[in-house]
Write a structure and sequence with these properties.
Elements (H helix, E strand, L loop, with lengths): L2 H7 L5 E3 L22 H8 L3 E6 L4 E2 L2 E2 H7 L3 E7 L17 E2 L6 E4 L17 E5 L10 H14 L4 E4 L35 H10 L5 H6 L4 E2 L10 E4 L23 H10 L19 E4 L7 E3 L17 E5 L4 H8 L6 H9 L12 H6 L3 H7 L4 H20 L8
Parallel strand pairs: 1-10, 1-11, 2-5, 2-8, 5-7, 8-9, 9-11
Antiparallel strand pairs: 3-4, 6-7, 12-14, 13-14
Helix pairs in contact: 4-5, 7-8
């Protein structure tokens, strides 16, 4: 039975979660975490005989082999590849314009979903029976893969094309913190009213988008129900999440592949929610060094502080303070120390301390007010300028943050922290 055709017939069954004995609420802590992509026995039957398009990048691995190569070896007909920010191979700089291409290894056309072309068009989906999404996220609002996921999800629903999401663990999925984005500050680095650290896997986030009807009106019309069931090859689905095995929201997952050129290791992943705010200032956030988002500083800060000189490199061809000696902070260290220092919170002290020490207060924040898009409001910048204490700033987050925490609970697929 062709579930693509049945999609139009059974409109009362638009969204399924995969829930069977394969992942309980009490994963074995001694067992390795199994990303959804590695659970091929569950989803491979759904792809057999179909023309498949895959949204993927360098993190889309099945053990040591890329998902695209793995599926082709299994006899799956992959007809198109979609690539996010940083590209299919993950080497492009942040914000770098990417063009459509052909994958040299497989000869499959690659369509870039970044820049002016963020959502697959009807033409892009022509000849596609099933869409697959498999990208490792890091659980931070301004990391753009969740924005790409939203556009992909909308395109799937609007064009009546089933979407299979291969879930992956969230390395920052063990806490929730930060200011919740206000709608007027919506952008590609923050499209929804969620905090900076939102504590959901990419699969759970997709369910949140659909369940809260945060999609386009047309996509929301199709997504009318949320039914938990075990899929079979004869069961139609609109969106199906293949869960991870042996994972819960207390897990500390170390990514086997760097998710982007400037997020190179687990230390950077843990620090990124706190240090990315420096992208909205004149300070270097460490791009062009061997420790991006772990070091930050500026030539105007005291020269007795930690010194570094950022320079162009692969994945950071241009940024602030290149070829200038900067003085500032080096937060790098052992994973255990970083986790202890962060204490399951975004640390504003880095931003507050840097502002206090910076000699030209009027020029600390970039004139384009990019800090407001990162914060999701225009309050944080004013609070920093007014010399507010971190505790007072955090207090102002609480009403919206507590509301989000209640919403979040509805979409958890794994045991919570």
């Amino acid at each position: 039975m062709n579930y693509c055709k049945l999609f139009f017939f059974i409109l009362a069954l638009p969204l399924y979660k995969y829930t069977n004995a394969q992942s309980t609420n009490k994963p074995l802590k001694s067992s390795p975490i199994i990303p959804g992509a590695e659970r091929m026995e569950v989803y491979l039957p759904l792809l057999k005989g179909k023309s498949v398009a895959i949204f993927a990048n360098q993190t889309s691995m099945v053990k040591s082999t890329h998902l695209v190569d793995t599926l082709i070896k299994k006899g799956i007909k992959v007809v198109k590849i979609f690539g996010p920010e940083h590209g299919f191979r993950g080497t492009a700089s942040a914000g770098e314009e990417l063009n459509n291409a052909v994958d040299k290894k497989t000869g499959i056309p690659i369509i870039s979903l970044y820049g002016d072309h963020k959502k697959p068009t009807k033409e892009d989906l022509k000849g596609v029976d099933v869409l697959v999404f498999d990208i490792q996220d890091i659980g931070v609002r301004f990391y753009t893969y969740i924005s790409s996921l939203q556009y992909y999800l909308e395109a799937a629903l609007e064009n009546h094309t089933p979407l299979l999401i291969l879930d992956r663990p969230n390395p920052n999925g063990f806490y929730v913190d930060g200011p919740v984005l206000e709608p007027k500050f919506k952008s590609f680095i923050g499209m929804q009213p969620i905090p900076v650290v939102y504590g959901l896997t990419i699969g759970e986030y997709a369910l949140l988008l659909a369940g809260e009807k945060w999609l386009t009106p047309e996509a929301n019309k199709i997504n009318s129900y949320n039914i938990k069931t075990h899929p079979t090859t004869d069961t139609p689905f609109h969106v199906l999440v293949i869960k991870c095995g042996n994972y819960d929201h207390n897990s500390k997952y170390v990514l086997p592949v760097a998710p982007s050129p400037n997020i190179r290791d687990i230390q950077a992943i843990y620090l990124y929610p706190s240090t990315c705010f420096f992208e909205g200032t004149v300070l270097s956030e460490g791009r062009g060094t061997d420790k991006p988002f772990q070091v930050f500083g500026h030539p105007s800060l005291p020269n007795t502080m930690y010194a570094f000189t950022p320079k162009p490199n692969e994945g950071a061809k241009s940024s602030k303070c290149y070829y200038q000696e900067c003085y500032g902070w080096n937060l790098s260290g052992t994973t255990e120390k970083i986790l202890k220092d962060l204490n399951k919170k975004i640390q504003l002290k880095y931003l507050l301390d840097a502002y206090k020490l910076f000699p030209g207060k009027d020029s600390f924040f970039l004139k384009n007010n990019f800090i407001n898009r990162l914060a999701g409001n225009d309050v944080l910048m004013q609070q920093v300028k007014q010399g507010k204490k971190e505790a007072e700033i955090r207090k102002s987050w609480e009403p919206a943050l507590n509301n989000f925490k209640e919403i979040r609970k509805k979409y958890l697929l794994y045991k919570d922290f």
